[in-house]
Amino acid sequence: MDSKDKQKFTHPLIDKVEREYLKILADNLRNGSLKLEEAKSHTREFLSLLPFSSFDDFKKKIYEFTLTKSLYQRIYLIILNYEEEIKTKNLLERMRALIKENNFEEALKVVANK
Amino acid sequence: MVSETASEIPSQPRMSEVSIRPSVEFNPRLSTQESKAADSITSGLNSGKPPEDIMRRLLNQKTTKEQNTQPQPNTQPDNEIQSNKKGEAGYENNQSDTGADGDNNIRSAQGQEGSDANPNEKPNKTEEDKFKAAVEKHRQKHGLQAPNLETDERFQKIYEKLMNDWEEKNKEPYKGRGGLSGLSHEEKMKWIDWAVRRDEYGDRAFSEARVIFKKTYEKDFDKYEKYGVYDSLKNDPRFEKILGRETRVQYKLAIERPDIFQHPAEIAFVHSLDEFIGLYPEVAEVYAIKDENVARVLKIRKEKNQQHTQPQPDTQPNEQRKTGREDNQINTGEDGDNRRSGQDREGADANSNKERTNNEPNKPEQETEIQELKKQIEALTQEIKELRKELEQLKELEAQAGKIFQHLKENPQIAKLFESQGAGATGNKPLESKQSNISKLLEILILLLLAAGGFAVGSEAKKT
Fold first, then answer.
1. Do A41 and B12 touch (CB under 8 A)?
2. Where are the domains of chain B?
3. Most buried of B41, B67, B224, B295 (most Cβ within 10 A)?
4. What does the DSSP 8-state code read for residue B230?
5. How far apart are CA A32 and CA B281, in angstroms?
């Protein structure tokens, strides 16, 4: 990965989070719990978070955004869920590689040390 | 696995307890500015537009009442936001690559892992076993090394190599430090950042591996494109692609004509299913084992095909018609049981029946078709004869009308009347068609009626 990529964090997860944000927005505009002006204001704020420099930056900014607006808490949960997925995936890959080499003890250690 | 980071906000529920997809439904009847904005967002999402474009469009939407306009602490002017995004070609490209559903982006390389199908929809074990057996049979029939490209060992090796190359260039931080538990918060975040980047590259490597595989094993790649089978229709990338495109089209139509297109998602699904079955009929046969929707559409398509080959079923001998229907029912199945029994049949036998029914109509059917065509030709010949007769009659009428016309013209009063009506030119000109004949005759009749009074006066004068 080159230096430019390191500076700007681009990931399909951002798109997923943004879409989820818009879905929540549409739902709440429709059921009357959000006024258009509020939606606009929230969207302005959301856009001001861009761009993200890293996953950590992305996570932090979304966390702060959802901290004051609990309506959008679900988008932060998507990030947490993804983080968990990544960890699990990585763990399983490491275990799979060790088991392939018949190194069961090391594979067990991976789980124990997680 | 217990979340380490989730513990940061203990009050939050687990992901499994939360519906990630809110029920955003298309409701054309709502008319307030809020609901218009909501509809605009929904349509934007369904049309696959980049979310940031949708957000900017929302900001540009005019409001009738300016209320609750308290600026947020981080509020930034729109033009500033725009400038922030400038030069992010990579990001924009990434956005535009996404389909209607962002979920597709984080697809695992294995493809078969992590099926998001509803557990309630899962077929029972016997159906699953039958499905597996059918997949195996299908794989052997078409000479595939694996059920689909993603499970092909050669593809996996290419993918693994790409991933290893990436890891060579981007070393895992804190490797051998005894897992995440031994790391500080900052170190953990650094490691997660690395893992996220690795995962992101995984998606790119997946696409790259496809390209490499296509170049290296072109024939096999084409086979997978045509006959590859996944664990369900929903997880089939070809179906996902069709559904994504069709959903965008249907939502566009629903916005343009909400009175007609009221269930875009359902219509899109049905259209996609039909298209998929049309493009990949043999793959659909395999999915039909455990998917009732596929089985139903397959059955309808087969019946349609049968109707094409048998345009007049009543002209067929009774016995033959009966056997034909039985074959069809066994192959497609009226209900689940029949479908299962159809699948139990030996492939070769079932295939021969299917081919005969769909592609090679037998001799009596052809004869019936020829006889039917002959009948149609005879009927058309008869119709032409009748039309010729009518034309002759019209010509006779025309001649008679001409005589009457000449006779009437002799009367100066009627001649004046004809001139005033502009009918002088209609004299004895040959009529070009049946339609013009009728219209001209009608014209003459009207004139005759109009002139009835004058004619009577003329004849009275002659008598005296």
1. no
2. 366-463
3. B41
4. -
5. 46
